[in-house]
Structure formats: C-alpha cells, structure tokens
User: Fold these one by one.
Assistant:
Number 1:
Amino acid sequence: MRLQLLSDLHLESDPGYQPPHAPGADVLVLAGDVGSYQTGSKLDGDDFGLARFSPLRGGPWRRVIYLPGNHEYDELPLIETRARLRRLCNELGLIWLDREVLVLDGVRFIGCTLWTDFEALAAAEAAAPPPKGAHLRGAAGAAHSLAVRQAKQRDKALRAADFWLRRHTTRDADGTPMLALALRELGLADQTWLREALAAPRPDGEPTVVVTHFAPSLRCADPRYGLVPGTAGFCNALDALLPQADLWLHGHLHCAIDFVAEGSRPDGSTGRCRVVANPLGYPTKGERDGHRPTWLIDVPGTASIA
C-alpha cells in the first residue's frame, strides 16, 4: 500500500491551493490543519477546505483518511466543531480517523489528534546529564533536583503555549478559551486511548499505521528552532510507543520528518517504526521548501493496489 501524506495546508491563508494527486497513491492521508476559520481566514464556504479532496465531488483520490489538527478548532467550540467535522467527512466520503481504528486492505490504521501534554522537555530532563555536584546530594537529593528541573520545564512550556493560545485557540462549551492546562487534559486522554488501541491484538498480524497531528517524539522537533519551551507544544514524548507501529505519520511541525526508530515492544520483540511528516506550511516563511507534494510512502510489508 502506498500513501500520499499531506498536512498543515493552512488553506485559510491560501485558499486557492490545490494539492496535486500523486499517481499510484492507494490512500491520501490528511494529518490535520487543513483549514481554519480563525480571525482573518480567507476560506469561503463551511467545509474547512476539505471538499476539494472529496471522491464524491470529483476529487482524484479514491480513498481519503482525515483527522483534525489543532487549527480546525480555532475560535470555535471544541465538541461542536469535532461533531461538525465528523459529519462533514461523512457527507464528503472521507474516512474519519480521530480516535478510530480502521483495517483497510490488510493495514490497521490508528488515529487521533494527540494533543500535546507539554511534558516532552520535562521528560527529557530525566535523560539529561545531572547538574554539577548532584552526586553529593544522595539519591533523595538527586530525585528532588530532577523533580524541580522537570517542574520548571513544564511551567515554561505551559506559559509559552498560553502566550500563543490567547490569540487563537478552541473554546469549551460555555465559550471560554481553552488554554494549555485544558488542552493538556485532551492530550492525556488521547494518550490513554492510543495506548489501548495499540495494545489490542492483531490476529492477522497486519501492519500498523498510526496517524496523529501532534508529533510523538522530540526527535520530530523543528531544527530551525532547537529545543525551546515552545517545542513541548508541538511534540510529545511517546518514544516508547513507536516500536508498536510500523509507520507513524504526523503533522503540526512545519518541517519534513523521516527517520526510523527502533525499540522493544511489550512482548519483548524489537520493533522498527518509520516516522514521517510532510507538511506544507505557510507560503511566507520558506516552510514549503522541504514539502514533497506527490511523495508516496510505502506501508511496510504491503504492495500497492492502485
């Protein structure tokens, strides 16, 4: 099976953009941030820009998988907008994958937005070299020092996120803007769901493709910016989950990603997971230089059926 992956098209800023169809693609995967109605959006209509991908409306793709990113929810109520997007997928003949598991032609797709929990840099502190003199404090002192450093990293990440979220964020049922702590709860719930989905048995041994909007690992961080407090608003620290998938597709960061992660699975075997992102990004920031519009990604252990 060959997949065409697109994300972060941000059609609200460039509504005339029409992604090309990749010849030979069995499935198009849209990994979020396709279009939004934030203040200043140039999108017409009420389809978030998704109609152009519809197999029912002349789109060239036979099958299209979609899950929302964070920006689809900008300045809109979360629960109502999620339901609206799901209904829209049904009307357009798109396959909704947010918190869904789908077996398609012998491939298991598992998807969720995977909102960040803002823990990635705090988690990285545990692997970082201890500060000078830490060995003099004993085990209890070292543990306390680590907890303090992690709390500082977490606080920086939450404050950095709130600075941006006050401009554009989703809203809860009473219209209150959802800031970092509220979005963290969404991320923790997504993680719980995803762990359970990955742990489910695969009686036919089908390959697993995970699709998320937010990135699963700090290894996906944009090298233009390095590891800064804002990075934890883009990347999770779920490296231990990577070996349970064969392919992990994501968006959110506006830089191309392609690497292979190896690690132990729960049964003790070694897993290899290819992690890929192919975002478009904004036209004014040079973010489209690494985008490959007709790139085809092979699902391990499968053949093309197009």
Number 2:
Amino acid sequence: MLSFVAGGCAPLDLTGVTPRAPALSRIVEEAPGAACEAGGSALQTGLDLDGDGTLADSEVTRTEYVCDKAPARSASVLARVRPVNATPVCYATATVLEAGADANGNGALDDAEVQASHAFCNADSTRIRYAVQPEPADGRCGRPGTKVDAYVDLDGDGQRTPDTEDLVTLAVCQASRVHDGDYVVASAADLAALQGVTRVEGNLVVTSETLTDLALPELAVVLGALRIENNAALAHVTLPGLRFARSVELIYNPLLETASLGASAASPVFVDEDLIVTGNPLLASLDGLGTLAPRRKVSVVNNARVEALSLPGVTHLHEGLSVQENPALRSLSFPELRSAGYVSLAHDASLESLAGLSAVRSVESLLLIDLPALGPRAALDNLQYAQSISVAEHTGIKSVGFPQLLRVDVLDIRDNASLESVSGMHPMLRVTTSLLITGNGSLHTVEYLPGLTSLDYLDVTRNAVLTDLGGLRGLVLLKSLSVHQNGQLQTLASLSGLREIDGLAVTSNPNLQALGLEGLTRVASSFTVQNNLALPECLAGRLADRVYTGPPAQRTISGNDAAAPCTPP
C-alpha cells in the first residue's frame, strides 16, 4: 500500500488512484487509397494502456495523414481539322490538322491546347483521315507519348494508298515531370509516387524487401546512378523510356529474372560511367541491357545463368571491362569496342571464343584467366598495343598468338596445362619490360620473334617439355635471365646473341647439358647456376670466370655435375 503522512494528519491512502498512461505516437507508411491517393505517411497517437512501451493498433485514438503529391494525370490527346484561306506554305486554301492534349478536360481541342499542326494544301477537309495512337518510348518524343497519323484520302476508299497518299505524323509529347534530388524506392507506394516522372535529378535507388516488379515506362533520365540492389523479391525490371543515366547497377537481386532498359538498339541509352551486373543468380539473359552504352566501365560478375553478353553501343571504356565468374556465359559481343583501360575475363567456365572482342585495338591490361572452354587458340586478332597481357590457368588452349600486336610491356604466359606453342605473333612485336613463360606443361615451341632484341626480365620456368629457346634468339640485352625447372631443356645456345645481363639464374633444369651463352660478355650483379644435374659444373665456372664482374658473394655455382669433365675452351 502506498501512503503519505503530512502535518500530523492521518495517512493518505492512494491505493485506488491509477496513474495516467503515457502518450505514444508512431509513423507508419500509408498505401495509396482513400486517405492518400498517391500514398504517404500516417501519424498515429494514443495512450500506452497496457504499459508495454509500444503503441498497439487498439490503442490508437487519432490518425493524421501526410500525403504524397499525386502524379499529374495525363490528358487525353485530341485532333481536329479546319479549313483556312491560306498558310505560310499554302498559297491557296488549305485544311489544317491540329493535335494536342485536352488539358482542361472539356472534350474539345481548344486553341491554347494545340501542340502540333500540319497544313494540307488544296485538300478537302472531308477527305482528311487521321488516327490517334500511342507513340513508343523510342519515338519522336524520346519518351512515351501520342502520335496522330493522317493522310488525304484522294480516292475516297477509306484506305491509305502508300504510293499516292503521303502519311503525315504529328507527335504530342507528354510534359516532363522532374524529381529534384535522390529518390529511394523501398515499397509499392514509393514506386506509385514515381509514376509519371520523366527525370530524376539525383540517384535513383531501388532496394525493397517486397517489390516484385519495377516498371517506370515514362522515366527517361537519371542524372545520378540508377541502383537496383538487394531486392529480396524483385523479379522483373522494365524501363522502356530510359535514355540516360550516370551509372546503371543491378546488384544482388536473388530472384531477378528479366531486366529491360531502353526501347531498342536504334535508340541507345547513354551511360556516362558504369554498367555493373553482379550477383543475380536467376537472370538468364542480358539482351534487355543491349541498348546501354556505358563509357567508363562494364562489370558483369557472378551471374549463374547468363549465357550471352552483347553491348553493340560500347566504343571505348576508359576504366575497363570485367567479365568474371559467370559459369554459363558462352559468348561476348562488343563489335564496336576499340579501346579499354583493362579487359579482364576470368573463371567463365563456358566461354568459347574471344571473337566478340575482335575490334579491340589497345588496352592497358589484358587478363585471360581460367577459361576452360576457350580453345584452341587464345588471341585478340586486332590488338596492337597493350601495357600488360596475362594468359593463365587455361586447360583447353593449344596456342597463344596476337597477330597484330606491335608492343607490350609485360607478356605473362603461365600455368596453361594444354598450351603447346606461343605462335602467330606479329614478327616485329616488341616486349619492352618482361616476358614470363612459366608453368606450361605441354609447351614445346616458342616461335621466333625477330623484333624482340632487348628486355628487362626473361623468366622461363616449369615448362616440362620445352627443349629449346630458339624463338628468343634475337635477344641482345637483358637485365635479368631466369631459367628454372624446365625438365627437357638441354641447352641455352639459342641465346648466344646475348651480350650483357645484370643477373643470371639457371637452376634445377635436370637435362640441361650446356649453357652455350657464347656471345655473353658481361654479367654485372649476380650469377647463379645451381642444381642442374646434367650440366658439367666446370662449364658454369668457366663462364663465370669469363663474364661475371659483380660481388663475389653473389656468385653461386653448386649442385651441378661436378664429376663431368670439360673440354678445353
């Protein structure tokens, strides 16, 4: 029992007094309906009668609505014909066809509502035939609209004769409706409020737990990024009127089955920066993205069912192209792509050909990694310049060749189990920095490259059946030569044209019997010849005595055939 004692009076018993319940409020989403035509928010208030700290539905005593602005309703399009005495193009009488939206809804086309007109000279107004029809998103307006097709029915048969009765089309375009700033679609109400908007002057982000279909037929421009990401239920995306976006991203939408942006290839969607399609396991086709023409980057990664990628509008990618981990992807088509910062194709298990990149002339970096269905030749037939090329971890290719390649800084060919030859190169190819031929278990031929006379670094390692380096016989200058673990290599005599090297390392080549570097005059910084079981150690010592000028501590000769004799020089 709660009681108070004051001023000598008897205790006050407050047992029967109940404290007032605290007032609570909450804001909930209001779906489009009677309270808010376009949806909005509902502010609900009441008393927490059960004392649980939350406002239950039964405790709500008052609701106030904050409604979103309803989209403007599209006025119907009307047309009319009227005779006139003359027009700027008709010197005599004429009939004018006029069309426009019935903005005031009075069912008649008023003078102030006329948006388009055409004068038929010397035409009887009773012979003008016209029809009001929808104008597609890729038509004259650049977004959905209405058109009026008309002709003069000269023979009065009610049918247009194409050879003698010319067709005239008037376009009545919908007025632009702009959303200023970013917009987030998280619910059906958010999507409903966006209907009719033609331009978003910010980012448009679609991320929802419940939305299943995203359709915005009138949206034409997104000045920021269009991001459709992390939508748990989204299955279909349709944006037929889209003409421009800074970037387009479809990322981690587990139920997405179709995506269509833009109307047709004849009306490309200009994407100022990036197209990113990542982690959409049910998306089987990218045909609906074929209208997109990104300028900076294309990244298509980890989409389990995608079988083809075609972007005919792409001409240059300032950052690059990345297509990786798409196990069903069979073909690429970039018929107009001329240059890219990088081209990276990796772990696409079904990719059969690089023919779709045949227009590429220059890249900074080309990576072809683990494409088991690619074969029998890995090549970009028109590539002329690259900073680096890496061809690695393939099990199907038999040869590597770039017939138009004139210069590359780094050429790395490694760990290709079935590769038999490096051939089909341009005869004047220059490799300016590094040539790495490593881990190619079936490689037996490196075709002669007469233009290859100097390098910084040559590494020939773990090529089990390679017997000869004759394709590199034009080399004169090297900074570093490394020859390791080549099981069948017997001699380095093909490199007899070499004159100077900074560092020499020849190790663990079990069948190497001779060095044969007869033209060599100087090794400046390090000399290592080790563990070549068939190589007379005295040959290594003799060569070192003749050419090595570096620190004694960097001269290592051991583990070779110490018992084998050397003939006098």
Number 3:
Amino acid sequence: MKIPTDFAAFFKQAHFSELTPIQAQVYQPFLDQQSFLALAPTGSGKTLAFGMPLIQQVEAGQGIQKLILEPSQELAIQTRDVLRQLAPQLSIYAVIGGANLKRQIAQLKTKPEIVVGTLGRVSDLVQQRKLKLNRVTGVVIDEADELLSEKMDPIRALISRLDRKVQLNFFSATSAAIFSQLSQYFGREIGQFDLRGDQEFRAGLKHYFLAVPNKKKVELLQRLAHRKQKRTLVFCQSSKQLHQLAADLRYRKLYYMVLDTSDPKRRREEALRSLRQHQTSLLLTTDVAARGMDIPDLTTVINWENPQTATAYTHRSGRTGRMGRAGEVITLGNQHDYRQLQTLLRPQAITVKWAQLQAGKLQAVAKFPQKKGAPVKSQSSTKNKSRRSPKK
C-alpha cells in the first residue's frame, strides 16, 4: 500500500519512505469503521496506524468526533502532538489530570474535532457535562493491555454513554487475557490483527547482558553513561529503587534526570524535554512512567535488574531501536540473573548476548565473564546495597 496522499509531506519530513506493516494492514478496515484489536511490536508506528485513518474520518467544524484514551498524561500529550502534525487544519486537544481544569474546559468550548485524554480526567469532564460525546463516532484505546486490565469497568461505563454503533479500536504491543473477551464486554464483534511476529522494524535492536556485582553497578553505569553519542534510559523496578540510584549518582556527581510518576507534572515534562533536547544523556525511570514514550534517537535502554515479566521487557526495549533504527538493550546482573532472563524471554525468541565494556565500547563475548568462586545468587531477589548519598 502506498502512503496516503494527505500524509505524504509528513512522511517525507519524518524520513519515512513507506508504511509499516501495521499501518498498511489496518488502514482500510479503520476507514471502513470496523472495530478491532491491533497487536504490533513496539516501535512499529501504531500511533500513525490509527492516526491517519482516524483523521480522514473527521469533518472539520463538526465538534468532537473522535476520542483517544491513553494510560498516562505524557502519552496523551505525545499522541496529541503527533496528530497535530498530521492534521494542522484540525483542532486537537488533550484533557489530562494535573493540568489546569479551567483552561481545558475553555478549550472544549471551542469544539475541537479530536480529544486525547486520560480516563480519569475524561470521565470527570463527562460527569460535569463539560465534555459532550453525543457526536463521537469512534474511540481509540491505546496501550490497551494496560488500560483494559486495570480500568475495564470505568471504560465500559464511558463507552455505554456513546451510540451503540460507535467504532472501537484497541492498540497494543503485548497481549492480555482480557482481550479474548472484548466482544463480550463491549457487545459487538471485535476483529483482530496480530502482527507481533513481524520483527522487520526491530532488526536494528541488539540485546546484551553485562556481568557485574551489585556493589559495582553504579560504577559500570557511570562508564556506560560516559560513552559518546549515547542517550540512555535506565529502568528501575520501583520508585524507591529509582531514587536510591539517583542518590548514588548524585554522590558521584553524574548528571542525570528522573522520570517518576510520583513527581509533579512540570518536573516530569522537564525530564523528558531535557533528554529529547539533548540537555542530558541519562534518564532514570520506571515501567509505569516510561511506558509507550517515544524519545527520538534514544540509543540505549538499561535494565538495572531483570524485569519481572516478558511484557515489561518488551515495553522497556521498545523505547529504543524504533522504526528500524539501531538500538541496544543492556541488562545488568550475574550468571544466575542471565539464566533467569533467558528463561523469561525464550517464548519471544530474543537472543541476549553476553558482553563486556572495553575502552568505552560494548563488545559481545562468547563466554560469561565470571571470576572463580564468584557468587551466583540472583541480584534481582536481593535488596539493592548501593551506597547512600551523605546527608546534607
């Protein structure tokens, strides 16, 4: 399928020469107002996959016709910005928690054609009758595995307010048990497009494992962060672990930013802006805070410990190597952690190579670099024993 004429200029400016498989596969069914679930790898262009046909269904000046639900404030803003580039002639607004409510209500009074939002704020505005959905013809639920698994009841309550013929489209990089019951939950036929096996746009992604004891992790991270032309996202298991790592890096006077859901919205925006604008090359985060984020030219993802699920690994690794670009995923741990990771990723057919950092370069090695007598107890099951920053 050729790039739709309406979006040729956007694709040229973004240096995209063709549609990705998911974009080509769902374009016509979406235009034909079919309800479906679309599964595709991270970084395969799902936002454009629903954005292009959705925009072509919209009539300018006819009020709110499309609603897009995102799991986080940052993702809602990101999606809004992409759609605005695709359709500068339309009014597209984001309604999210943590933002000025009066300003959002004022924006809604201008009758935008498309609203992107988080479920909590959207539901609140609907209850207050400030967000009117009587003209809505389609709803997109992005990152559907997360949203439906955690918020199925309020989503169904919201959908129940709409016309029974409203088009429903769900997009996700990973599956969820609840997907098998979509038709039952929403009272209509929900088709499915599963392109997760198409890894064409993940070909540039390499997976490495670096052997390192807990007490040496911060030092190794410092060396990894000092590599030239590298922009790095470090995933921690929890907010507590994230801020402990931040304290250790602060002690070593290494510049970094933190992206944590517990931080104020303004601070999270500043952290993302700093990485996107190359003001920092190191961002510390968690699974919840960074899920779905598109950070252009991100070269490296580091797992401070093994992720707890294969789904978490998929979403973490999906922050780099997007749309066929080169990227690297580095997991830190010992030999036992490596075996655990291999077991975790075996169903996904992901090969993780042992590696060493030599002269500032990451090099794959054939044998696990372990000293004689070194312990092999999993680091993922023990508490982080990193040094604490001295009190000021």
